[in-house]
Structure formats: structure tokens, C-alpha cells
Amino acid sequence: MDNSTGNEKHIVEENSKDQQLAQFRVNNYGTKMTTNQSVKVSEDEQSLKAGIRGPTLLEDFHFREKITHFDHERIPERVVHARGYAAHGEFELYESMKEFTKAGFLQQAGSKTPVFTRFSNVVGSRGSVDTARDVRGFAVKFYTEEGNYDLVGNNIPVFFIQDAIKFPDLIHAIQPEPHNEMPQAASAHDTFWDFVANNQESAHMVMWQMSDRAIPKNFRMMEGFGVHTFRFVNAEGKAHFVKFHWKPALGIHSLVWDEAQKIAGKDSDYQRRDLWESIEHGNFAEFELGVQMIEEKDEFMFDFDILDATKIWPEEVVPVKIFGKMTLNRNVDNVFAETEQVAFHPGNVVSGIDFTNDPLLQGRLFSYLDTQLIRLGGPNFTEIPINRAVCPFHNNQRNGFSRQRIDVGQVSYHKNSLANNTPSTSTAAEGGFVHYAEKVEGRIIQARSDSFKDHFSQARLFWNSMTLPEKQHITEAFIFEVGKVQSKSVRQQVVDMFVHVDKAMATTIADAVGVDRPTGEQSTVTASSPALSQANTIRVPQTLKVGVLIGNGFNGAEVKATVKTFRDNGITVDIVGERLGWIQGSDGLRVMVNESFVTTDSVLFDSIYVVGGTAVNQAKFDSDIVSFINQAFMHYKPIGIATTGESFFKASNATAGPGIVFAEGNPSFDQIFVKAIAQQRFWNREIY
């Protein structure tokens, strides 16, 4: 905003892109083009030919190198988690965890460890949309002084299957169907639901997937979980079973399904753009890290198996101990070199963190390493900068594709005398990793413990924990997804399965998708876990985005005061008008419009502030504002109405009620509106 006249200069700070470009020019000024062998290039526009119109000659080594490199710029995308986005940051330890683990980066309160975190969608290809209904990956690489530790999890604490041998079947079922390669990044098709109905251990996970958790608002507002049961082991060798939790500082918030679908069309990069822009603007993503811990002696005291990846440990039964915070404060410099080439592996642990006999985890310990070998061209992927440990490493591994390090000396084996047996192994006292000495005995068998056979108790627990709006969203998600299934037999199997979770829900689904009502009975579990409901999350206005819908002739004093209140509360403001450029209020205040009704949309904002005004094409301007109001109202978002905006509100389908804040006659408008913005959704609103 600006009170100056049109002839005065307006000083605009150089944005980060300009700064990066300027730095690039400084770093590259005066350099000469060379080949990858550092031979200076004299011509980069024409290939070498035999005569001016003759054939191109293969001896043109610059042409061959340039084209060959281009031909090989793509590497195989991940089979799962292909679409991802990442950022750098640091992890700060609040309090020492020495009592529970000897992991070096968890010993000294206040210590900081560099991290690299990649968020991802599981099912879609790299070119799919961000806002698909899907599980989100949440993988963190800690660059510790003892080596790299990877905490590789999801935004949902459980999984579809109990044993890793079924993972290929799950992914084959949920990915696009092979006969027509459709649908992309979606589970709403026959093969997935056929798998669910015939593999009923998936019941609990499917309840989460049909919930709002599967369409997070952005990466900064979703929980993260290690999913599996791991061990902490302290210096005395005492172990605790643990589950890892990432708690977002901004709370856990989601999109509504209609909103998610529309965003996919308006901005398929919505979630990655949010992370990038937030960090660029200094709104760093923050997550607190905690663990649930169970002593070994208590392993069998629960009504679920603590090694079953389809089960949670209810937080009311096993509390989460928070001990540190991760702050993502730097965007990547190159998406391919970092985000695409980073290699996570749950087997990358440091001394003091160990594995359990969770059969899904045991399979992942093999699979992730095997995957990196083919994606990243062989065994030396650990030498790629983003994967390289920050501490020195020494071993006798040699050669292989893309070897970066030049090893010297004649000795590359253990034991040896020529190099005085270096590198040598370390004792436990010296920090050498010693696997936890768990006593294991039993017959070799392909079977599953009876303690893994209860598939519906926790699915019912999850349902019991939801509010009425959350239950409605789950039911509607089932209706949408199962309604896309062509096989009536599969639709019937699904409702017959989920009657064991809730009979009323399954009956509603059956009626909507054209199958017989189920006759089974629901689980008798009556317990709930309030921690599972997003109704109980943190609600703050910081970093939320408000669209100010405005034209010429606005009330300058009112708008200036309101926007100042927004910014004082950490709210991001976009000025949306008929066209980009300056507009002027009735008192001479000038405002720069940075988005037009053509370049943005109501679904891309957390709230709208309706100011109104005049425009060149008044009818179109009025229609656009009314459309914004209708859509925001339908998605339960807060709406603020300036004194000059009431005519637009009256022309819309929206009605006064929860989350609708009027400035007229309301001296506390700014503060009330900010509280409404922090609330984000008003589920008790009567939707037209």
C-alpha cells in the first residue's frame, strides 16, 4: 500500500529470485563454455557438418556429449513416493534422551543436527497433482556426527498390510490399472477396493485414508509418524520399544474434498508451492519430535500387538514424550540433485536406535536399499552430495558405477598387515554399532501370530474418535471412491467388510453405491482417542493466506487498518483485483494488486476479505467477487465483509452465520476476523 502520488517512485525490495539471479551472474560472470572434459567450446549453435548442407559428423565430440547428456537427464522415478518436495533444516534437542538412548545427536540439550526432509505422495507419478487423496510420505535424514540416520515415515501412523511380502500386491492394486493406465494418483477404482475387501487387515488404514488426513492442507500442517516400532537402547544396554511422532507447530489441518479437486485444476503444485514460498518468506516449517515408549517387560500387556503396523498405540494409553524440534528453513538449490537423488532407507540407523521384529519393517530394511541401487546407478549413491554423511567414512568398498572418491593405497581388505589393519572395527565403547541382543527362538515357519488377527477393533476406535463432520467426510469419501468401482461384486464386498466398523456408515454407503445393505454386525469397541481427531488440534492465524477482493474507491483507512492487523498476526495477504497494478481508494490511498481474478481462485485462499469497489468491467468484477464468496462459503471458510462489501455479500448465496464477520458497526472487526481466520473451518454452517 502507498499514500504517494502516481508520479512518485515506489521502492520495491529486491525479491529472493532477483537476489538469486544476481548471485548467479556474479558467480558466472566472464566464464567460458567448456565440455565436461574442460575443453573450451568455440561453437554451440551449429553441429559439425561435411559441407554447409552436408551430413553431421560423429566426430563432433561437443555435439555428442551435449545430446548424450540430455538423453540421460532422467532417472527412473520412484515406484512409490515419486511426487515429492523437500527442504533443508535443523533439528534442535530440547532435553537429553541419554536415559533412553546412546544416539549421539540425542545426548546434549540444545545441540543442533542438520536435516533434509522430503514430503511426498505415495501413489501418483512424478507428474501427478499434489492434492490427490493419498498417503503422504514424511522422510527425514539427520546428518549426525555418527553417520546418517533416516526416519522414514508417513503422515498416517498405520499401514495397509502387516507383512512386507504383500507390499508389491498392494501397490499393484492401488496404482493405475495396467490395461488402460488409469486412474492416475487415485485409489477410486476396482483393483484397489478388490484388494481391500480381500485383505481385511487394511481396514484401519483405509479408515484413515478416507478421512481428512489423506488430503492435508499443506506439508506444514500435517503430522508425521515413524509407523513402525523401533527400539531405543541406552549405554547400559537397556531397551525401550518406541514409536516416533512429528507434531506440526501450526496444527493438523486438511482440505475438503471438493476444494482439493478444484485446487488440482487451479494449481497442481499447490502443496509444494506452499512449502517453497513459506520458506522463502521466512515462515519456516516447524515440527516437534516425540516418542511413545514401552518398556520391554510391558510388551504383551496391551490388547493389540505392539509390532503390528496396522495398529496405533493410543496416546491416552501411551503418551508422546516431546524432546526436540525440526525447523525447515532453506529451500533446495536444485530439485533434481537434491529432492530427486536423495536416498532414504529405514535401515540407516545410528548406535542407540535399533529395529524390532515388525514384519513390515523387516521387509523395508531390504527393499529400500535394493531400490536405490537401480534408481541411482549402483552402489555409490551414498557419495551423491545430498546423501553423503557429514562425518568421515572409511571402509574397503571400491569401484562400481559413478564412484566419486579416489581411493589411494594398495590395501582394500580386512584383516591386513600392510596397512596395520586399517580401517579397523570399533568397540561398543568407541561408538561401534552393536545390534541389540534380543533372544530369538522358534521354528522356521511362514505364518502370522494370532495377535495380529484383529482387524476391526482399532478401525472402530478411529471411527469413535471422529466428530460428526469428520464422520460425514469419511462416509462421503467412501461413497465417492466405492462409487467409482465398476464391479458390483467388489462394491458389495466392501460394504460387507466395513459393516464391522460401523453399521450405519456401511448402510449409508450401500444405499449410495447401489448394493444390498450389509447384514453383519459392527465391532463392540466403545473406546475413543481424542488425539486422533483434528477437532482437537492447534489453531493459529500465522502463515494463513487471505485474499483481499478490492477495486477502486475503497475505504482506505478501513482497509489499511485491517491489512495491518492481518500482517501483525502473521497472516499472508494477497490483493486480488480486476487487473494487476495500482488502484486508489476514496481517500487517495494506493494499493498494488498482485493477483487478478484470472490468475488466482477462491480455493487457493484460507479466507477472503470482501472490500469491493469500482472496475472497468463492473459486471464482470461484481460476478467474480460473488463467485469467490460462494466458493469460500461452500468450503466452510471464514469471510470478512468490509463496509463497502455488503452489497456483494447480499448478491451471493452465502448467509450470515458462523465465520461470517461484518465490519459495519463492529469496532472489534479486525480482531474477531483474525480469530475466525485462525479457526479455518466452520462446520456448523448451513450450506446452500
From TrEMBL:
3'-histidyl-3-tyrosine (His-Tyr) crosslink site(s): 345-368
Sections of the chain in a coiled coil: none
Domain Catalase core stretches: 34-422
GO molecular function terms noted in the UniProt entry: catalase activity; heme binding; metal ion binding
Keyword vocabulary terms for this entry: Heme, Hydrogen peroxide, Iron, Metal-binding, Oxidoreductase, Peroxidase
Native source organism of the sequence: Sporosarcina limicola
Protein name, per record: Catalase
Assigned protein family: Belongs to the catalase family. HPII subfamily.
CDD domains tied to this protein: GATase1_catalase
GO CC terms: cytosol
Residues annotated as binding heme: 78, 118, 167, 364, 368, 375
